[in-house]
Amino acid sequence: MANRSIADSAKTGLNFKMGQNVVIFEDVKIGSNVILGNNVIIYRDVQIGDNVTIADNVVLGRQPKLAPSSTAKVEGILSPLEIGSNCSIGTGAVIYAGTKLGENVTVADLATIREKVKIGDFVVVGRGVAIENEVSIGDHTKMQTNSYITAYSVLEDHVFIAPMVTFTNDNYMGRTEKRLKEMKGAHVKRGARIGGNSILLPGIVVGEEAFIAAGSIVTKDAPAYKLVMGVPAKVIRNVPEEELLENQ
Question: Residue 19 burial by CB count (10 A; 0-12/13-18/19+): exposed, middle or buried?
């Protein structure tokens, strides 16, 4: 027999379905045609739109608990997690409070999305992707398997992040108080593409429609419309006209 705990103040829409061992806390709002798998936990005040599918073992709306030495700061209770309509959340995903997902977002199995993250529409968060706190992600952006998006990064619209890409944000790697003022992730502009296993140093700007070749270590800003590759990465040539967004 199903073992479920649903707060009296939680509200669910039409055609709501759920599996076993589901826990839904106070004041959660769930739209119509939503499906929850088994062992799903939804913390208080989470808002879920229509036509959302949430797979097994998902945790939604968790409030962060930071280590005493963490540079991230959270004061009080964060705003509720918001998940837009037509989203799909994969098995084992964890999404924190203070975050907002747009519509038609796909979050694959085992992905983690931390607090104060803003995600646009038609975004793909691949399997095992980790998005740290205070990241902004634009519409139609894709992050593939096991990529790591560090805190304080910006990804604009139509950005492509290949598997195993690593963003960084701390040039001092935890040493000196100076790092706290200079901590900054990469800013990847519209239509840029980052190849597999590349590393972006703190504060790097990747220009519009730039192409970072696989395995590159990007130590300087990458110009718009240029192919950049190597260790350290250097400009090689222009991105071909037929690959630009305007020609798709």
Answer: middle
Strand intervals (E) in 158-201: 160-161, 166-167, 187-188, 193-194, 199-200
CA-only gyration radius of the chain, Å: 19
State the Cα–Cα distance between residues 188 and 195, nearest whole angstrom.
Answer: 13
**Interacting residues of 67 by C-beta distance below 8 A, sequence separation 6+:** none
The neighbour count for residue 163, using CB atoms within 10 Å, is: 17
Residue keyed to tokens 């790591």: 148
Three-state DSSP state, 186: coil
pLDDT in tens, 160-181: 999 999 999 998 877 887 787 7
Residue 131: what residue type? I
Per-residue pLDDT tens digits for 22-35: 999 999 999 999 99
69: left (phi over 0), alpha (psi -120 to 50) or beta: alpha
pTM above 0.85, yes or no: yes
Triad 157, 159, 164: Cα angle to 5°: 145
